[in-house]
């Protein structure tokens, strides 16, 4: 199904809906596909509200209540309120809790359009402070002008368990102020699904230590700050799944994780709940595009998995307070780690990057920074040549065009246990990757495919600048470093990956005004098939991720040299599927990152030193995001 892509769209308080399912169809080909969006829940009404009702009635369909306030006071576990068509100057604030099997539900009657508009005297539209509350197929649009104060949420889930916002639309008409569309704070098992949020300063905010939050199947767009924000006010990396969403037209970052204030004392070590220390965040099967700064910025983060996503059109914005003008401003990285912060154990795998700024900038940095366990593998990077000032421009004074490399690592000895393995890199104008090859322990660079029809070059960085090297010179620079494994020995250079249907670089045309570089084609779907042809040399050319440190005979305990390559699902989804020395696939049931131990869901037998792979078909893993036997 073709996807109509609106590359230039002035925000005027509303948006033409796009085919989100069409965008998401390209987000996975592999052993762990994004979870299918479940069918909508169904509820049988027990009470009704209508504009012509009376609060003195019994709440039946024949004698509906008139106000949601009456329902707030009355509903109890298992009650389902059907709200009939109209705009209600009221807000949802239930006084009682539901239960796991008997939630309290506020829903639109049949296919009626129901708008919750709030009251002039109260700056809120929906508060879920009780357990097991559901808002279903409602619209939230505050109709009473500006409310003084900070980033106040229109829909707030706070201190509760088991709440859901499903099929709702949260939006601001006209000038964007300081509102947050949906906020989750200190809540457990919250689900936000199939919602649209736009015109808010921040689309969705997750803060103050919530646990096991799911955001799935949502379209969040035209937010002059972030479409998604994590962590303000407390540590939150405790089991969160961000899956199958579209995040676009953010004036700042598409998603900013953990610490937007650059507080050096605010870090993963300050996790208030050590029992959940390895329950992280998974970004899976999302589309990120048109972000004003970075698509995804991980700050002070640990245990984040970024997989099966599509990043394209990350061209910057410079958005105004009304959300206009999304062009070439402050674009620094598709996935980056913010300044003056530390990031540990970040996995970036099976993603597609096309026509973005610098896709990954995470390894090392300034003197105070140290990053460990950054694993980048089985991604496809194509034609990513943007930076702060536009397409194919030179911005930084060190002479390297920051947007024109698939990976930039300038940390040297501060890049510890970092790896770049099984990736396809094509069409980079300055260099394939740019590294400062220091003596950080546990580095691994190998089994990549590099291709540039204009000639490949690699940037060897130093404290004073960088030097362009050929592939052979690049490998020689690594050869004497005992801290680097692989040393690009098995990597392919100058080899066309033979994509099914994708250009090496995007095509542009010059126009006037602030739309100086726009895409010629309006249908981007034709560019997004980065699978490789059956005769591609990327097939069966990938390598292992780790090596067994013990032997096992019908054992479920696998000790590896570095467990940070893998994930057990963080308690919110399935664990990785792996193969040990070409054996049968097995799921990872648990990961002990401190001891480098994987617990297997079923016992397996292996020898010490055995290679450990992500699940694959054929004779070996493929290079790039796509594993040829899975889709």
Number of strands: 55
Discrete helix count: 3
Strand fraction equals 25-35%
How far is the first residue's CA from the last residue's CA?
16 Å
The class by helix and strand makeup works out as mainly beta
Estimate the mean pLDDT confidence.
79
Question: Can you describe what's shown?
Answer:
The chain has 3 helices and 55 strands. The protein has 631 residues and is mainly β. The two termini are 16 Å apart. The model is unreliable at 1-28, 259-272, 317-331, 394-403 and 509-526 (pLDDT under 50). The relative contact order is 0.09. The strands form 7 sheets. It has a 16-stranded parallel β-sheet that branches. Strands 3-5-8-11-14-17-20-23-26-29-32-38-41-45 form a 14-stranded parallel β-sheet. A 13-stranded mixed β-sheet has the order 6-9-12-15-18-21-24-27-30-35-39-42-43. 3% of the residues lie in helices and 34% in strands.
How would you summarize this macromolecular structure in one to three sentences?
It is built from 3 helices and 55 strands. By secondary structure, it is mainly β.
Could you give the topology of this structure?
Elements: H1 20-24, E1 47-49, H2 68-74, E2 80-83, E3 86-88, E4 104-108, E5 114-116, E6 126-128, E7 133-136, E8 139-140, E9 153-158, E10 164-166, E11 169-171, E12 180-185, E13 191-193, E14 196-198, E15 202-207, E16 213-216, E17 219-223, E18 226-230, E19 240-243, E20 246-250, E21 255-257, E22 281-284, E23 287-291, E24 296-298, E25 301-307, E26 310-312, E27 335-336, E28 343-349, E29 352-354, E30 360-363, E31 371-377, E32 380-382, E33 386-387, E34 390-391, E35 407-409, E36 415-416, E37 419-421, E38 424-426, E39 434-435, E40 443-446, E41 449-451, E42 458-461, E43 466-469, H3 471-479, E44 484-485, E45 492-493, E46 499-501, E47 508-510, E48 517-519, E49 529-532, E50 546-547, E51 552-559, E52 577-580, E53 586-592, E54 597-606, E55 611-614
């Amino acid at each position: 199904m073709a996807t109509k892509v609106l590359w230039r769209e002035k925000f005027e308080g509303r948006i033409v809906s796009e085919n989100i399912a069409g965008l998401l169809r390209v987000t996975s080909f592999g052993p762990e596909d994004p979870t299918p969006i479940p069918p909508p829940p169904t509820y049988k009404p027990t009470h009704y509200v209508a504009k012509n009702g009376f609060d003195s009635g019994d709440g039946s369909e024949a004698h509906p209540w008139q106000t949601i306030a009456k329902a707030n006071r009355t509903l109890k576990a298992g009650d389902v309120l059907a709200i009939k068509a109209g705009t209600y100057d009221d807000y949802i604030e239930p006084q009682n809790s539901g239960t796991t099997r008997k939630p309290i539900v506020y829903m639109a009657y049949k296919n009626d359009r129901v708008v919750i508009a709030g009251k002039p005297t109260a700056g809120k539209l929906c508060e879920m402070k009780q357990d097991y509350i559901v808002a279903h197929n409602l619209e939230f649009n505050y109709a009473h002008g500006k409310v003084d104060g900070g980033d106040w949420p229109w829909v707030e889930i706070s201190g509760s368990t088991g709440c859901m916002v499903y099929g709702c639309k949260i939006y601001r008409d006209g000038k964007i102020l300081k509102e947050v569309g949906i906020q989750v704070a200190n809540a457990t098992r919250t689900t936000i699904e199939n919602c649209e949020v736009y015109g808010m300063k921040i689309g969705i905010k997750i803060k103050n230590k919530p646990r096991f939050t799911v955001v799935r199947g949502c379209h969040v767009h035209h937010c002059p700050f972030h479409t998604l924000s994590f962590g303000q006010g407390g540590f939150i990396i405790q089991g969160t799944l961000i899956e199958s969403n579209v995040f676009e037209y953010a004036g700042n970052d598409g998603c900013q994780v953990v610490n937007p204030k650059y507080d050096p004392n605010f870090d993963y070590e300050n996790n208030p709940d050590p029992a959940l220390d390895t329950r992280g965040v998974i970004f899976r099967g999302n589309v990120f595009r048109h972000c004003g700064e970075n698509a995804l910025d991980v700050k002070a983060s640990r245990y984040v998995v970024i997989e099966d996503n599509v990043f394209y059109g990350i061209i910057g914005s410079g958005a105004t307070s009304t959300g206009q003008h999304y062009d070439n401003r402050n674009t620094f990285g598709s996935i980056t780690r913010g300044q003056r912060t530390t990031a540990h154990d970040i996995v970036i795998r099976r993603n597609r990057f096309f026509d973005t700024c610098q896709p990954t900038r995470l390894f090392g940095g300034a003197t105070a920074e140290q990053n460990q366990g950054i694993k980048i593998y089985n991604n496809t990077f194509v034609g990513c040549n943007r930076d702060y000032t536009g397409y194919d421009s030179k911005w930084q004074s060190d002479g390297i065009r920051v947007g024109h490399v698939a990976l930039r690592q300038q940390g040297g000895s501060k890049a510890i246990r970092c790896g770049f393995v099984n990736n396809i890199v094509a069409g980079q104008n300055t260099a394939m990757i740019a590294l400062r090859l220091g003596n950080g322990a546990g580095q691994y660079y190998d089994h990549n495919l590099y291709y540039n029809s204009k000639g490949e070059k690699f940037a060897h960085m130093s404290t004073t600048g960088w030097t362009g090297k050929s592939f052979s010179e690049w490998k020689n620079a690594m050869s004497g470093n005992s801290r680097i494994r692989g040393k690009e020995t098995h990597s392919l250079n100058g080899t066309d990956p033979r994509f099914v249907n994708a250009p090496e670089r995007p095509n542009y045309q010059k126009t006037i005004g602030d739309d100086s570089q726009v895409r010629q084609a309006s249908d981007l779907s034709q560019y997004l098939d980065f699978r490789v042809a059956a005769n591609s040399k990327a097939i069966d050319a990938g390598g292992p991720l780790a090596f067994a440190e013990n032997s096992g005979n019908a054992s479920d305990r696998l000790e590896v040299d570095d467990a940070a390559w893998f994930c057990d699902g963080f308690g919110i989804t399935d664990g990785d599927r792996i193969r040990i020395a070409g054996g049968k696939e097995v799921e990872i049931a648990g990961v002990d990152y401190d001891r480098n131990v994987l617990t297997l869901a079923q016992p397996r037998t292996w020898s010490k030193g055995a290679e450990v792979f992500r699940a694959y078909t054929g004779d070996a893993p493929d290079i790039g995001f796509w594993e040829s036997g899975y889709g």
